[in-house]
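Ticket #4471: complex job returned nothing on first submit. Input attached below:
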Amino acid sequence: MARTRGSHSDITGPRVERAALRLFAKHGYAAVSMRQIATEVGVQAGALYNYTPDKQMLLVSLMKTHMQDLLAAYEAWPKPVDPLGRLEAFTRFHLSFNSERPEAVFISYMELRNLTPEHFNEIAALRSRYERALVEILEDGVQDGIFQLEDARVTAFAIIGMLTQVNTWFREDGRLSRADVEALYWTMVQRLVSA
Amino acid sequence: MARTRGSHSDITGPRVERAALRLFAKHGYAAVSMRQIATEVGVQAGALYNYTPDKQMLLVSLMKTHMQDLLAAYEAWPKPVDPLGRLEAFTRFHLSFNSERPEAVFISYMELRNLTPEHFNEIAALRSRYERALVEILEDGVQDGIFQLEDARVTAFAIIGMLTQVNTWFREDGRLSRADVEALYWTMVQRLVSA
DNA sequence: GTCTATAAGATGATAGAC
DNA sequence: GTCTATCATCTTATAGAC
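Support reply: We reran it on our side without changes. The output follows.
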């Protein structure tokens, strides 16, 4: 059966999300109007409400998708069994995953304050699951006598903080390649745990 | 001579800046209206324009003041002459200064995208002066054979990234005191440069 | 210096035609 | 599924009285 003319729900839906992602990252959630998103997609503002109940849910959906993608991709990432190998896998995974979606990473950190408490807690829970994975690697390494560190939770924050910061300065056409950056940060992470 | 009744320029001015700082940090620059700021200060919206030509300059002024305060405070901070002592001074200064003004720190990083190119470059230049100070400490330490690291600029970014991240999780009533956090991070910074 | 009033336009969201 | 038209409200900024 032929499709109704002008019906593109399976095409327009993803385009709305991508446009919102791009514009929210560039100007901030509050600064972007539904009309701007509609213009970017090539439809009228009213048509957006076929894809989201309101502006807030558009943001929530972007952030939730990003955090779920992060967790799913990390679980699928090849991981050795020894703590040092797992720490290297985590380091390289984090740098690689984040470098491929700078906009979603930026939004997921930046726009937390625009979430209602319920949505905030949902995103925060996903984020802690990821952080918890690193804490466990560090604790295992300490137990095996391979790592030396004072506080696994604070060290995990420090590692994630320094790895995530890369997105603020890395440029594709800069002095260093992605491989250079990965190697430098893996060396620094090893030093941080005295491995 | 008696003051004109209702004239409070020396009191209201700072109150406008403080209200804007608080509200911009909480909700984001774009999400805050001049009416909200006026309500917080206790005046009508029109009165704000005695203290700022427009909303944009209110943001620029907050960010510029913060960066200049940062540089001035760092210059006044007691600094040893040896690289290791200077690195410790930088670490403790950064944690201490940032912990005292979380809102200004947040805004100065978060709202860069809302600046016109001219204002952005001005703020970015102040920021690099600060980063440059750390790079020089690291380079001096390498030259003296005290530090071992591959890339002084990337290491400086990593250190600043991990130190600045503290503001996102530290709570006054949490498990760790400020002194605990300073000690933990100073240990980690030393490890990062193999000192 | 602060007020009230207002200009000129943008905003999120909905209703109903096609 | 998309459009046009519209509502009610909010926005930044200014003018002029006090």
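The mean pLDDT of chain B is 95. Closing as resolved unless it happens again.
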